[in-house]
Amino acid sequence: MTALTTDQTAELEQLAMHRAKIAEEVKNLEELRKEYDEKIAALAGEGTTKAGPYKVTVTVPKRLDAKKLEAAFPVAQHPELYKRGVDTAKVKAAGELGQLVLADYQTAGSPTVRIS
Description:
By secondary structure, the chain is mainly α. The chain has three helices and two strands, in the order H-E-E-H-H. Strands 1-2 form a two-stranded antiparallel sheet. The longest helix has about 40 residues.
């Protein structure tokens, strides 16, 4: 934990308080947006519809069901439909055993801030 001055602690407290308020507002707005999206999709249906100055487009994404595909096209009969990949769990285990240095293969992401 970082040692902060009294002024830094006060500033951090203010920032954390404002961020918590913003997070709550965002959550409420996301819920409201989801409700609106559901109503819009029900009214407009799939496709593009003109609504005053707005063009409303409703799409229904379709995803392939990997389990159904695997059942219908087993790897033994259709290897061309499958790919090999790195098993990151095994890589992490190898790193923990000292077989490789994980830091050599890691990239840093954006910092995550949680206020509780």
